[in-house]
Amino acid sequence: MNKDTHLIEGRISANRRGFAFLLSEGREPDIFVPEREARKVLHGDLVLLKRIRRKKKDKYFGKIIKVIEPGKRKILGRVSKNGGINIFEPIQDIITNYFSVRIPEHLNFTTSSIIECEIQRDSDGFLINSLKFLSILQEKANRTNFVDLTIRNYELPDSWSEDVIQETKLFKETISPEVISTRKDMRAYPFVTIDGEDAKDYDDAILVEKNDGYFDLYVAIADVAEFVKPNTRIDEEAMYRGTSVYFSSFVLPMLPETLSNNLCSLKPNVDRLVIIVHCKLDLDGNLVSKEFYEGVICSKARLTYEQVQRFYDSNESSLSVQTLDNLRFQRKLYKLLLEKRKARFALAIDNVEANYTFNDSGGLSSINHQEKKESQGVVEECMICANIAVATFLKKEKQTAIFRHHPEPESDKLLQLNQEALKLSFREDAFAGNARKLCNMILEKTYDSEKRHYYSLMVKRTQSLAFYSASESNHFGLSLDSYTHFTSPIRRYCDLIVHRILKARISGDELGNESWLAPICSMISRSERRAEEATREEMQYLKAEFLSTKIGEEFEGFVTNLTDDGIVVQVFSHMVEGFVLRSKKQKSKYMSSSHLETGTYLRLVLTEVDMRMRKIFFKLK
Question: Is 389 within 8 Å of 277 (Cβ atoms)?
C-alpha cells in the first residue's frame, strides 16, 4: 500500500470480457478495474492504482495512475486489413485490445500468419495503439508450434546461456569423503522415492519407522543449495525462471538437467546429499518434536504411485522387507495425519483429478476422471508435515523466511458461494461468517451427489490466489497458521531459498531482515502464475483439438454462469468449459431466469470448436 491510502500497487489480472482486477500482494482485497481503465494496460502489468469508492459505500473500483513495471514487452497476433490499415489481433484471449502495425511492404503474410511485435507505451506506461513490427513467425499454428508460440508469447526461457552450461561442467559426479564426514550418514536407512510414472527428477525420499508410542518420519529433500550458490549464473537463471514449467510432453526445467535429472535427483542406489526433516509424532498424529540436519542417503527404491497402491490393495510385493515395513508405516501414519487434517477443517477440494492419455503424435486420445490414489495422499501428507515443521520452526525462531500465504476468500465471493449453499437447503445463517465452515459443509453435503464436481468447482472459484510472502504465513486452504514450500527445490525457487535459510540457521549464520526477500517473493509468485497460464493455454488447445472430432455428439453439463450472450457450461466428463450462444428460440424456451440458474443440469450437443480462439460451442438438446 502506498503512503496515500487511496493509492495501491498491484498486478493487473485481465479478464477476456474486457475488465480486470488489481491483485495486491498485501492484505487488500482485489479491486475491480472497469474496461475503460483495463484497456490502458496489459495482463501482468505492475501498476499504481487509485481506489475510488462507488455509490455503494463498501464497493470500490480502480483508476490506473501509471504503470510501474510492464508485465509484457512483446506480443503475438494475427493481422488483417481494414480500410488499408493493418489491424493486429492478439492471440492471447485475455488481451481484448486491437492494435495497428506497419509491416514492411516486401514481406508477405496472410490472416493466418503469426506476427511478433513490440509493445509501445507512453510516458505513464499506458498502451499506445500502434505496435512496432518485429517478425513473421509462421503461417498456421498446429499442435507442435502452438506450444512454441505459447513459450514465446509468455516469454518463457527455453535454453541455457553458455555461462550456465560452463558452470554445470564444474560439478563433480561423486561425493567426496570429506563432505560426507560433515553430515549425518543415513545411507544404510531404507529411504524410498515415490513419484508418478513419468517423473525424471526425484526431490524427496521418505522413511517412516514405528517405535513404542510414536512414529519417526524422515523426509529427505535433495540439497540443491549445496550445488546452486547465491550470485552464480545458475542461481540467477533459476530465480528468473522461478519454477519448472510442465507441458504435456516436455518440461522447461528451472535447473539444468545435469542437476535436476542427475546430481540433485535422489536416484536409487546412488549416494545423494539431502536436507532431512525428522518429525517425531505420537500415536494420535501430534507432532512431538522436530529436528533438521544435513545428511547423505542412498535411496533403496524408485517406486511409483501405481506400484505402492498395488501393494496397499493386495499386501503382496517382491520388494525388500525393510522397504515394505517403511510403506506399511507410511500408510499408518498417513491415516493419522489425514484425521488431523480433517480435525482442523482443512479443505478437501482436489480428491478427483483428470487423467489424460496421449497418442503417438502428442494429441489427446482420452480424458477420464480418477480418484486420487491413497499412495498419492501418503506422499502429500508427509510433504505437508515437513513443510509445516520447517515453517513453524522458522516463524518461532523469528527467522527471515518465505511463506506460502493463502488468504481467506473475499466477502463478495463468499456471498456468491453462500447463495449456492442455499440451494442445498442450508439455513442462511448456518455458517455464521465462517468461510472455512461454508466451504467444507458444501463439499461434504455434495460429495456423493451428481453435482459433486460442480460444487467443488464453485468452492475452488471462491478461493483467493495463494502467493509467496516474507511476512504473511497463514494458509486458509490447509487451515494452518504457518506454511511454506520446502520439499521441491529442484523445481521451485521458493524451496531453494527456504533451504538456504534453514541451512544458515543450522550453521548459526545470520541472514538479516526480510527486506531482501520481498522482491523475490513477488518475482516467483509471478513466475508461478505465468507457468500456470501457459500450461493451461496448451491444455485448452489440446482439449479443443480432441473435441473437434466429436461434433454432433451429446454431452452433459452444468450452468456455471449466465451472460448477455448466452450461458457458460462446464462439461466435467472432459473437464472443459463451453458456451451456449443465445438465440431467439433459446431465449424464449430456455434462457428465462425462472428456468436457468447456476448449477442447472443440461443435456448438450457439440456444434463447433473454434481452434483459433480455443473456444467450444454447444446447443441445448
Answer: yes
378 and 417 share one domain: no
Which residues, in sequence order, are bridge partners of residue 78?
Answer: 89
Q: What is the H or E stretch that residue 76 is in?
A: strand 74-82
Same domain, yes or no, for 376 and 393?
yes
CATH number assigned to the domain comprising residue 136: 2.40.50.640
Q: In terms of domains, do 400 and 534 share one?
A: yes
Q: Name the residue range of residue 86's domain.
A: 74-140
pLDDT digits (tens, 9 = 90+) for 331-367: 999 999 999 999 999 998 877 888 899 988 888 999 9
Domain count across the chain: 5
**Strand 287-298 relative to strand 184-185: parallel, antiparallel, unpaired?**
parallel
Task: Render pLDDT for 275-303 as a digit per residue (tens, 0 to 9).
Answer: 999 999 999 999 999 999 999 999 999 99
Which SS3 state, helix, strand or coil, does residue 330 take?
A: helix
Q: 296, 183 in Cβ contact below 8 A? A: yes
The mean per-residue pLDDT over the stretch 10-25 comes to 87
Q: How far is 184 from 389, CA to CA, in rounded Å?
A: 19
Q: Which of 18, 25, 14 is nearest to 525 (CA)?
A: 25
Torsional sign, CA 427, 431, 433, 436? negative
Residue 517 has pLDDT above 50, yes or no: yes
CATH number at residue 20: 2.40.50.140
Which three three-digit cell numbers place residue 312?
496397499
Give the residue among 118, 133, 116 at the shortest CA–CA distance from 76. 116
Q: How confident is the model at residue 145 (pLDDT cuts 50, 70, 90)?
A: confident
